[in-house]
Specification:
Elements: H1 10-14, E1 24-30, H2 46-53, E2 60-61, E3 66-67, E4 71-78, H3 90-101, E5 106-110, H4 117-122, E6 131-136, H5 154-161, E7 168-173, H6 180-189, E8 192-195, H7 196-201, H8 204-216, E9 221-227, H9 249-261, E10 265-271, H10 282-304
Parallel strand pairs: 1-4, 1-5, 5-10, 6-7, 6-9, 7-8, 9-10
Antiparallel strand pairs: 2-3
Helix pairs in contact: 2-10, 8-9, 9-10
The chain binds manganese (II) ion.
């Protein structure tokens, strides 16, 4: 690849390149987790693969007419979690996200495995009554906890930790990818949820922005869990849980910009990407592009003051 100083690479921005006019910071941290998936795989390879895709994407958001280099990135690298049993994940993963949040307008979490959602969300505050969770995911992630933690139950684990169901908004749920039993768990918890069809009724990004506004009136900080399996399987072969019928990439990217714009969104995590299952880097490109869309939203928030 030729080096062109007039085509700024997102990877160089991650390495610290920024404009003199930069006035806010974005923290980044990778949480590669290798154990305890419902479908065994290699999601722990995702943080590195997402960073690699950023060499092929620029920092210019044409639609918003901005350059992401107006944000200073502090990339904290990958936390050493690969061989850690999920039962021991909470403290080190939460500490890594807190470090990325420190002094930053927002933090981006490069996950892979959805079990990071619990510690990353809990990094936003000790009093979970003041924390909100918005998931863009085909699944409830409310599986029973009796068999131990997995990528199938981070939301259930957060409810058990004391996160009020009223602070949970789950968007993009798909038929035939969930069970009515777990829908009943969501109903009993008092959470809000919408199927992918409902999300499209009034526009994906507008609906996400509306739910975030509502949630932000009731909490101090919001964590956004972006499970790439919210996309249609044809766009994310590397997301083990993806099925036909999901969102299109542009719908997800617009939703993620809306997340960046909401000032109470403190962190967004990208999960459920297994680079070994991927085809033509579709899934890792979708994750990398989501990261840039979130950063664009954060910059729009900063500019709006
Ligand atoms: Mn999922």
């Amino acid at each position: 690849m030729a080096i062109d100083p007039r085509w700024p690479r997102a990877s160089d921005w991650l390495a610290g390149a920024h404009l003199p006019t930069a006035r806010a910071r974005l923290g980044i941290v990778g949480l590669p987790v290798g154990l305890g998936a419902v479908t065994p795989g290699h999601c722990e390879l995702a943080p590195k693969a997402i960073r690699k895709r950023l060499t092929r994407l620029s920092t210019a958001d044409l639609a918003a007419d901005l350059d992401l280099r107006e944000l200073i990135v502090r990339d904290h690298g990958d936390a050493p979690l690969v061989t850690l049993p999920l039962a021991q994940l909470l403290e080190p993963a939460r500490a890594a996200v807190r470090a990325a949040l420190d002094g930053s307008a927002a933090a981006l979490v490069f996950g892979g495995h959805d079990a990071i959602t619990r510690p990353a969300c809990r990094a936003l505050g000790d009093d979970l009554r003041r924390v909100g969770l918005l998931t863009l995911d085909a699944h409830f992630d409310l599986r029973d906890l009796e068999g131990g933690l997995s990528n199938g139950n981070p939301v259930r684990a957060l409810l058990a930790d004391g996160l009020p169901g009223a602070n949970v908004v789950q968007l993009g749920l798909q038929s035939f990818a969930n069970s009515l039993d777990y829908a009943a768990v969501a109903r009993a918890a008092g959470s809000t949820w919408r199927t992918v069809e409902q999300l499209r009724e009034r526009g994906v990004a507008a609906t996400v922005a509306e739910f975030l506004r509502e949630l932000s009136a009731r909490v101090d900080a919001i964590y956004v869990d972006v499970d790439l399996d919210v996309l249609d399987r044809c766009h994310v072969p590397g997301a083990p849980g993806a099925r036909p019928g999901g969102l299109a990439p542009h719908e997800l990217f617009e939703a993620v910009v809306a997340c960046g714009r909401e000032s109470k969104v403190r962190a967004l995590g990208l999960v459920e990407v297994d680079p070994e299952r991927d085809v033509a880097d579709l899934s890792t490109f979708a994750a990398a592009r989501s990261a840039l869309s979130f950063a664009s939203g954060v910059l729009q928030r900063v500019r709006a003051g």
